[in-house]
Amino acid sequence: MLEIILLLKRYFIENKFISLLKAKQLLTTILFFSILTLSFAQNAIIKGVILDENNKPIENVSIKSGNIGTISNVNGFYTLAVPAYKDLTVEFTHVTYKKVVSTFNLKKGENLEFYPVMSSSVEQISTVIVSGNRRKDIEGVVTLDREAVKKIPGANAGVENLLLTLPGVSNNNELSTQYSVRGGNYDENLVYVNGIEVYRPFLVRSGQQEGLSFVNTNLVQNVDFSAGGFQAKYGDKLSSVLDITYKTPYQFEVNADLSLLGGSLSVENASKDSKFTSIVGLRYRDNSLLVNAKETETNFKPTFADAQGYFTYKFSNKFHLSFLGSASINKYNFEPETRQTNFGTLTDPVALLVFYDGQEKDRYQTLFGAFKGSYFANDDLTLHLIASTYHTTEEEYFDILAQYRLGEVNSNIGDENLGEVEFSEGIGSQLNHGRNDLDALITNIEHKGDFKVNDHRFEWSVKYTNEDIRDRLIEWEVIDSAGFSLRPPKTTTNEQPYEPFTGPLKPFQNVRATNNTQINRFQAYGQWSKRSSLGASDVWYNAGVRAHSWSVSGNGISTSNQVVFSPRAQFAIKPDWEKDMLFRVAGGLYYQPPFYRELRDASGVIQPDVKAQKSFHLVLGNDYSFKMWDRPFKLTSEAYYKNLTDVNPYTLENVRIRYAANNSAKAYAYGLDMRLNGEFVPGTESWLSFGYLKTEENINNRGYISRPTDQRLKFAALFQDYVPNMPNVKMYLNMVFNTGLPGGSPSYADPYEFQSRLPSYKRADFGLQYVLVDSKKTFNNGWKKPFKELSFGFEIFNVFDVQNSITNTWVRDVSSKRQIAIPNYLTPRVFNVRTTMKF
Question: Residue 614 in contact with residue 645, Cβ under 8 Å?
Fold first, then answer.
């Protein structure tokens, strides 16, 4: 830990990102709360509700594991703290019911919900083995601790913030919750909540407009993530799967989280007979703290709010019905006033001064609802029926006039005009206009099944989706430089001001389109998995295939029908070695049938014949579990290769993706991901990540160039620590380094002519928390009595105050006919205070 901090200190000082004095002050603070550690054991928790055959809770059930024990309460609820990383046998006994015996092996901090049903008339299964972690390791799935999801600091704290510390996952914009995985773009990631696919808004152009992620961290029970080579049961995307499970409550509980960026409140409850459970969450977010710290002075009035609920009713042991609902509204009102960006070098400093007039008003409103019926026919057969609807209405209205001046800065030390712009190299103005409206209604109905026969498991699904999307796109841009209107790019040569131009005036960029599009999809999959042995080694098999048929139609659109098949397979082996090693290989043919945005070309027109992008995946993985300092660690390594055809080229500006919609490219991606996680500090989980990626594309056979997501190197670290002698003071540190992405070029530019890279992205977020109340420190009287948990803390975002940039603003100097790139910087160092509580 000490060596890493010292290296970071030297790196940032040498590159002049912060002064020596500031570096000492900040690093001394972090060092104080990081290197002082103390051995501190942490357990796992098994909890749940014990029911009889009639779905009634059973009181006074004895739950024992060795010398550890507890009993169930009047509602059948129990909770048992057990040691982590050990095979434990837990017995559930009662004088009038048959004994249930279960075996567990849990990691530290894990909260497992286990709901045994005790019988008074038939023999129970002698042993039930619960080992979910090993199954996920076999599938190449990473499970993230939900407590870390809630506590790790970040400008956009939550699940996506924690994902960015994993190898192969990147995002160079802390205001955005979107992410790219192993060379894919933001549209290539699947997100499920309780087995139901969820969607994102369509029109968002910048990270500061996004507001809230769909996933409410207060409602989360489990987070699984796969970065590639995933099974056929997951959908048709090219890059990754994020599988979220919301909690099933077992008692009344209230959670609250407040900070300068907003707040959240969740309430969970269960009926006395445990048949009905509910959890509801409310969130509000205000990005003013972050945006007002940027270089552009604005009147910024954001409103990001949502409400979510997950309800379950158990009609019987065999039939459960659940509902997941969400309503969100994001309002983004933006009135820029002035901006000054200093760039260049010490010997040749340059500044861009901009004066604005106008405003932007955006509104995104989404409604989502899904019913899920589950029928447990017996221990081997489970059937599900899911129906969901997603409705979004989105508006983007803006008229912003920017009058700019680009000039040389006085760099004479001691001069009274030091830092002032003395000579203007370019003067001009830019007017941006937009009136964009979108209304999308997406309806799904799906049947899923799961059947087990001995060591064989069969899973299947049939799904129908209807997408009805109505879209109006009107955007234009006029650029005037020193009184001369700039012509659209790639048009007739304009020699102004040296020669007069007599052609008609045209906007520099102009996009107008109105679309009414319907897409009907039929999807199905079937897969088989089996656990077996090969000699003295354990082996696992999985094989499956997906089918996807879709048709595109609409006003003025010729109907197009296409079908694809996606075979996938996985194999894992755990050799009978002294060392705990697991090897796996996964591969298959992955398709991504086009969604609405992929059908819309750069001019806004729908191209119904766009094919599904196709990718052959091959993933080789290894997990090595070992002990170091008498504490558990695991080193995970994955090498991957992707061969992509029928690629749909796109441009990326901030978070807005515009597709060519012509399948005119082929591409490849390969790399190596490594993660070492374990108890670097006793009782807390931390990890170090490394990723190497190379991805290139060949558009229209012009040769291979870097793709917009070609993030060559990635380093990340997540540390959790606490102060010895003060175990209630806890520290969280989240660090990311990404090498620069290709880009920063004008949106209309030919990518073959602009292959320069943006600067590397460097960021560290630090959080300090003082715990007043938790499960180990409760109070029977006083003002702290109502709290189950209570903590206060502060956070520092972008600790080293690094000037990261995501795009460039391009300004034309008429006299020299040069286009000058001015970086658009992201958020500087920002301080935040935060409190969390549980009742």
Answer: yes
Residue pair 313/320 in contact (Cβ under 8 Å)? The answer is yes
Q: Helices 20-34 and 2-14, interaxial angle, to 10°? A: 170
Q: Are residues 605 and 731 in the same domain?
A: yes
d(CA 162, CA 677): 14
CA dihedral 814, 815, 816, 821 (to 10 degrees): -40
Q: Pairing relation of β-strands 128-130 and 97-104? A: parallel
On whether the CB atoms of residues 61 and 49 are closer than 8 A, the answer is no
Assigned domain for 185 exists: yes
- In three-state secondary structure terms, 780 is coil
Strands 276-285 and 68-71: unpaired
Contact 523, 463 (CB under 8 A): yes
Q: Give how far Cα 233 sits from Cα of 248, 377, 448, 524, 546, Å.
A: 23, 21, 10, 9, 8
As for how many domains the chain has, the answer is: 2
Q: Is there a contact between 642 and 592 (Cβ–Cβ < 8 Å)?
A: no
Please tell me the distance from the alpha carbon of residue 306 to that of residue 313, in angstroms, as a whole number. 24
Q: Among 704, 467, 452, 745, which Cα is nearest to 598's?
A: 467
Cα dihedral across residues 48, 54, 58, 64: positive or negative: negative
Q: What is the CATH number of the domain that holds 491?
A: 2.40.170.20
Contacts of 44 (CB under 8 A, 6+ apart): 81, 82, 83, 84, 106, 107, 108, 109, 110, 111, 112
- Do both 481 and 628 map to the same domain? yes
* 27 and 151, same domain (yes or no): no
Tens digit of each residue's pLDDT (9 = 90 or more) over 559-602: 889 999 999 999 999 998 989 899 999 999 999 999 999 999 98
Q: Tens digits of per-residue pLDDT, 741-800?
A: 887 666 667 788 777 888 899 999 999 999 888 877 778 888 888 888 899 999 999 999
Considering the domain architecture, whether residues 19 and 159 belong to the same structural domain is answered as no
Tell me the DSSP string of 313-326. EESSSSEEEEEEEE
Distance, CA of 312 to CA of 314 (rounded, Å): 7
- Per the structure, the complete domain to which residue 30 belongs is given by 1-35
Count Cβ atoms within 10 A of the Cβ of residue 21 and give its class: 0-12 exposed, 13-18 middle, 19 or more buried: exposed
Distance CA 820, CA 818 (A): 6
Q: Which long-range contacts (CB under 8 A, 24 or more apart) does 63-72 make?
A: 63/90, 63/91, 63/92, 64/90, 64/91, 64/93, 65/89, 65/90, 65/91
Query: How far apart are alpha carbons 283 and 274 in whole angstroms?
Result: 27
Enter the pTM of the model.
0.81
The full length of the chain comes to: 839
Cα(215)–Cα(208) distance, integer angstroms: 18
Task: Scan for tokens 């129990």, then name that residue.
Answer: 78
